[in-house]
Amino acid sequence: MTEPDAPSRADATRARLLAAAAAAFAERGFHGTTTRDIAAAAGMSPAAVYVHYKSKEQLLHQLSKVGHQRIIDAIDAVDDAADTPADRLARAVRAFASHHATAHTSVRVVNYELDALTEEHRAEIGALRREITRRMRAIVDAGVADGSFDTPDPRMATIAVLSSGIDIGRWYHDGGEITPERIGDFYADLALRTVGATTLDTQQ
């Protein structure tokens, strides 16, 4: 007789471990965190951790892979090539920035602990990061091509937009008066100003 809930229990356990690892890495740094720290935060024994992840580096790799894919998915969910470049950029950056505020603990880890990954894993995550840049750059290039953006350096403009959004994970904290939604709107406007948009009247 099969146990249909067995995979879901395993998935829930892995999710709990990832959340515990993200919190521990954010607080202590990757090198300052032990497997025992992660296990304790997840309410498990250190031995139980190894059932699901062979090492804390594997935990970091999974966090990084999932985290970067979520950003790609968030951009894809709001981007429509049929819209104007200004609307596309505003929506993409709004999603990007608000995600970095909402998931600030995990994004801080996946953006600032890259050097702790193995060479193979770092290359894999690097490819995901380049894909995020490619998507945003394509929107900027579309605006330059149709004259709705006026920037002398689309590449640097794209880097500036992404870098400012990534930094949200470093300084944002829950419970303040600045909400993820407010951050998303502010950074969307900032992105349009960065690329020299001829109009700042974009859909929310």
UniProtKB/TrEMBL annotation:
It comes from the Bacteria. Residues 11-71 form the HTH tetR-type domain. Pfam families: TetR_C_24, TetR_N. PROSITE patterns: HTH_TETR_2. The keyword Electron transport does not apply. Residues 34-53 bind DNA. The keyword 4Fe-4S does not apply. Keywords: DNA-binding. InterPro entries: Homeodomain-like_sf (IPR009057), HTH-type_TetR-like_transc_reg (IPR050109), HTH_TetR (IPR001647), KstR2_TetR_C (IPR041490), Tet_transcr_reg_TetR-rel_C_sf (IPR036271). PANTHER family: HTH-TYPE TRANSCRIPTIONAL REGULATOR RUTR, HTH-TYPE TRANSCRIPTIONAL REPRESSOR BDCR. This is TetR family transcriptional regulator. It comes from Tsukamurella pseudospumae.
